[in-house]
Design a protein that fits this description.
alpha/beta; single chain; about 250 residues; globular; Rossmann fold; seven-stranded mixed beta sheet
Length: about 250
Amino acid sequence: MRTLPIPQISETIRNGTHRVSYYPSMLSEIQFPRKIKSFIRRQGRLTAGQQLALDNQWHVYGLDPNIDYDFAEVFGRNAPRCIEIGFGNGESLAKMAAANPEIDYIGIEVHRPGVGHLLMLLAEKNLTNVRIYCHDAIEILEKRVPDDSLSGVHLFFPDPWPKKKHHKRRIVQPGFTELLSRKLKTGGYFHAASDWQHYAEQMLAVLSEQKRLANASPGADYCPRPDYRPLTKFEQRGIKLGHGVWDLIFRKL
C-alpha cells in the first residue's frame, strides 16, 4: 500500500473539555469569499502516542485530499456512508463506528493531535470502517465527495463564534446547506448538535430555509438526542448542571 504523507495543517480553538477542535471552513467561492474561515491555524502539540499513531497508522486510515477515491473500493464494500465534520479527539466517532459496523465513516479534522488520538483508538479497536482526511472539510465535500452519495453528515458541537462580528465564520450558512443538499442521498440526513442556544437557533433558521431539506422534528424545531450520538463527558456534566444541548436533524427530500 502506498504511504500517504501526513498533512501538516493543524488548529486549536476553544481548548477545553468539550470543544477541543473544529473543522476548517472555507465556504463556496460563489456564496462566501475565501478569506472567511472558521478556524485559526496554530501549531498543535502532539503526545508521543499521537505521533506514533500518525507515523504508524496514517497509511492505513488516512486519505489524500488530492486524490479522487472510489470509496466503495477504499472500504472494500458498498455500505451506507457518513461524514463527520470536525471530529475533535475522535472519541465519539470511534464509538459510533464500533457500534455500527455496517456503516462506513469518513472523519474530517485539521487538528493533528485529534487525528492522532483517533488513529490510536481505531488501531486499539481494530476498526476497519473509518477513514480520515486531515484537511478543509468544505473543500473535501466540494471536490472529493460525489453528489447524492452520503447517507449522513454529522456536525457535533461546532465552534459557535459567539461574538456578533464573527458570526460570518459559522459553518452553517446558506452556501453550506446548499452543499449538503447536493451531497446527501434522497432520505439522507444532516445532524448538528450545539450547546449554544443562539447558534442552535441560527442553524435551525438557516436549515429551514433550504427547500431540499426537511426538519425531522414533528414540532419543526429540535430533536431528542438519537441513541447513535454518544454522550460526551462534558455533555453529561452539563446536563447535571441544567445546561441545554440542542440536536437538529434534517433529511433530504
